[in-house]
Amino acid sequence: MPGTAPSTSLRAGLIQMRTGRDVARNLEDATRLIRQAAGQGAQYVQTPEFTVLMEATSREWFAGTKPEDGNPAVAQFSKLAHELGLWLHLGSMSVLLQSGKIANRSYLVSPDGLVAARYDKIHMFDAAPGSGESYRESKHFQAGSSAVVADFPWGKLGLTICYDLRFPGLYRSLAQAGATILAVPSAFIQQTGAAHWHALVRARAIETGSYVLAAAQGGRHESGRETFGHSIAVSPWGQIIAEAGDGVQPSVILADIVLSEVDEARRRMPSLGHDRHFDVARVTGLEGTGRTP
């Protein structure tokens, strides 16, 4: 709240799911796990990317996606946050836009049941990581255009989603805008998760001196996608403080966060204030080598 000093500690709950094609069942599963986290003292609960629906093709995505207005998922999570008296971060859900495309949108809901912040995923996962897999999110999703830092009782929360994790400039900008906790609800595929997930999450924490909280999808989904799991919380010094498994079963992990550790990490390594802007020199052929042709 404006004029109120941030609380100094936070218990965060991260929900690991294996979202399927039945929206009602997915909402039921998420609600059960959120209640479990609240029962264990979580004050802020984050669900993963694609909490409400996980599909494979454009036709299936559009068939299962509704606009935000009157959306039963938004209404249900808002009611749940109010009932439980916690900050509920719906990691993302698909939302039908007037443009005819879909937004991959996060919602941060306050304990009064009101949406405090929205964030549309900026970076689209258009990639062919190997083993015959190919993804083109931009075919049916519309990229967001604005980074978002949200005020809540523990300072400022930077909102991102999944593939955003590979773009360090976004996280640096969020931290320099005041974010002390960075949220990365995700659905990393198995192949890239095994290779890069831990390194990327820890790097974003170390580079910014921030806590990183990343609820994840895990396991083999009805759509055929296989996700890596390993929901994770990382300290501002890059230490893993809580981690889930590979997603055999949906689960809840808890992380106790001490906000003074952000100040301490940034004091020890004050790189956020050391950015320099520079030109890149392009050298071609033998130019600049000291050799003559």
Describe the structure.
The chain is α/β, with parallel strands linked by helices. It has a single domain, classed as Nitrilase/N-carbamoyl-D-aminoacid amidohydrolase. The protein has 6 helices and 16 strands. The chain has helices at residues 23-39, 58-64, 72-84, 168-176, 190-208, 260-268; strands at 9-16, 44-46, 87-96, 102-109, 115-120, 126-130, 133-136, 148-152, 155-159, 181-183, 211-214, 218-220, 226-228, 232-234, 240-243, 251-258. The chain has a 6-stranded mixed β-sheet. Helix 1 runs parallel beside helix 3 (72-84). It is globular and about 65 Å long. The chain starts with 8 loop residues before the first strand and ends in a 25-residue tail after the last helix.
The CATH topology name reads Nitrilase/N-carbamoyl-D-aminoacid amidohydrolase
CATH class: Alpha Beta
Question: Which percent bin holds the helix content?
Answer: 25-40%
Q: What class do helices, strands and sheet pairing give?
A: alpha/beta
Low-pLDDT segments, ≥5 res: none
Tell me the quaternary state: single chain
Number of helices: 6
Number of domains: 1
Q: How are the strands ordered across the major sheet?
A: 5-4-3-2-1-16
What is the CATH superfamily classification?
A: Carbon-nitrogen hydrolase
Largest sheet: 6 strands, mixed
Instruction: Indicate the mean pLDDT.
Output: 94
CATH architecture grouping: 4-Layer Sandwich
Return Rg in Å: 20 Å
Order of helices and strands: EHEHHEEEEEEEHEHEEEEEEH
Distance between the termini: 67 Å
Mass-distribution shape: globular
* Beta fraction: 25-35%
Annotation, overall tally of beta strands: 16
